[in-house]
């Protein structure tokens, strides 16, 4: 909601507050990592940390792989970026069109 309005700081606060309630909530970790990536080079190490933590908890999260690739790319780690983009692409290809839980 805040991101859509360009309110990056407010979005960051909202996601951090959510993590205080649920420290292992992967979507918040990915969102924070993506926001930090968008903030530029000084925030890249922290963005990498959030995204790596998200992948530790949920190794098949393609958004986390994608944003980690963007972080690596912007940090000049091209080989690492390629690996991340490849993982994101493979996960996207294997993602079912409809969630398995909605079928049951």
TrEMBL record:
Superkingdom of this protein's organism: Eukaryota
UniProt keyword Repeat, yes or no: yes
Alphabetical UniProt keywords: Repeat, TPR repeat
One Pfam family it belongs to: TPR_2
Protein's UniProt keywords contain Repeat: yes
Entries under InterPro entries matching the protein: NPG1-like (IPR043376), TPR-like_helical_dom_sf (IPR011990), TPR_2 (IPR013105)
Protein name in UniProt: Tetratricopeptide repeat-containing domain
Source species: Macleaya cordata (Five-seeded plume-poppy)
Organism lineage string: Eukaryota, Viridiplantae, Streptophyta, Embryophyta, Tracheophyta
């Amino acid at each position: 909601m805040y991101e859509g309005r360009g309110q990056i700081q407010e979005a960051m606060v909202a996601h951090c507050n959510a993590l205080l309630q649920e420290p292992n909530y992967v979507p918040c970790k990915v969102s924070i990592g993506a926001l930090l990536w968008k903030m530029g080079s000084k925030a890249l190490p922290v963005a990498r940390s959030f995204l790596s933590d998200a992948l530790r908890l949920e190794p098949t999260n393609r958004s986390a792989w994608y944003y980690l690739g963007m972080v690596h790319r912007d940090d000049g780690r091209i080989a690492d970026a390629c690996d991340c983009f490849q993982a994101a692409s493979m996960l996207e290809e294997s993602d079912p069109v409809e969630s398995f839980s909605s079928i049951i």
